[in-house]
Design goal:
21 helices; single chain; elongated; 5-stranded mixed beta sheet; 518 residues
Amino acid sequence: MRGSLRLSSLVPGGLVAGEVAIEGNMLVVTAHGAAVNGQCPSCHQDSSRQHSRYFRVLSDLPASGRGVRIRLVVRRFRCGTETCSTRIFAERFGNEVLPVRSRRTARLECLVHHLGLALGGRPAASFAKRLMLPVSNDTLLRVVRRRARPRTEPLTAVGIDDWAFRRNHRYGTIICDLERRRIVKLLPDREIATVQAWLSGHPGIKVVSRDRGGGYGEAAASALPDAIQVADRWHLMENASSAFLDAVRKSMRAIRTAIGATTINPDLLTCAEKLQYEGYLRREETNAALLALAKEGVPVKEIVRRTGHSRKLVRQVVRGERTDVFRVRQSTLEAHLPFLDAQWSDGCRNGAELWRRLKGQDFRGSLRVVSEWATRRRRAEKATDQQLQKVPSARTIARLMTTARDHLSTADTVTIAAIEGGVPQLVEARRLIARFHDMIRKKIPADLDPWITEAGASLIASFAAGIAKDKTAVSAATTEAWSNGQTEGQITKLKLVKRQMYGRAKVDLLEARLIGVA
């Protein structure tokens, strides 16, 4: 059955189509309102006394591959109510048809709004041009801002976290409704006063999930003293792992002694290792100067001012976290070491030949990697007891110490056994961290106080002190169902929208897009 195009389908409901003309690539439809009388916007009384008429030109949804422009006949009426201040008014068509003073129909405005929400400014404008929609990028953003509506649902459980406008320079705060899984507010900074002021305006909040930063906890305690604060479980696990890594970094000198790598002969190093060793010597000079100032009782801020080094570096030196000789990364040869050892034992000592044989084993690394391995192996066989025994980086040692023995190579097992025998404090720290992880996973709040007491006398004492300071929120993390995981997910969405707009969107536009999408 062949369909036919009705003129009424070219205009929104509430309007009556008249003449249709084609002007270039545009359909021009003359239309007028379907109502007989007009209603005064002030006194809301109907009037049939027509005063005059004029034309409004509107944009509407495209039809049949052409843009549609509506030439709307608007009537003016006289108000018959003597007490009304309005004498002459133009007829209204309703916000669902044509908003007051709008140059687009309501249905086109809705489409423009959703294009702006999904794509932003310029990408949406480019796509709208292909859809035969006459709209600019600035108009799209104005529509998104104008149609933004704040969330009005009552809040019971919220998640709070920070997000970066520009990393290490400027941060904002995101607040999510954990029950409905929606963003409810973006704050322009992460100051305590700003967060406290917003929380004070929502006294119905019963649960505040947050990370372990002290600022949000202080703001929640001041604004909502009766609310339950819940520390984020993922951050607790990550902080515990970082605490163990810091303990390994502080023990690197003892680890080198345990492995037997206290003496380094530069003649036995490869070119890449020599560069790292020279950098290590320069770092040691800097460390010695900073530690000398710290021993004299000079505050960290004053050391930063005198030396010009960053505050982060000074803190690392004071805490003993910059003692690695070689900061080793995972090598592409790790999976092929058994094959290389077998070839070496069979008499193949040429790096290029070893590399060619590895190519047949699906090795994708370069010749230089294999050549340096061969050089290191050749020198190790000729070296004396004074040679360098390669010490893994602190991060590698922390990973190996927390990996099951069944998944370690023989060389790694021997290295970790030597470390465990020479530095028993690390073994104790590893046991405490594993116990803390198990307590968070299995949600056993009764183990928290004994753990804090025991960990306070170990290498992770500073981490234990932080847990003790925030004990109420940490305990709630083991008893409450709420966590900040979905807030982190909303931050991922926020980053996507922010980068889609090249990082130039202000807080109100970001909030309008995110709340509109939710």
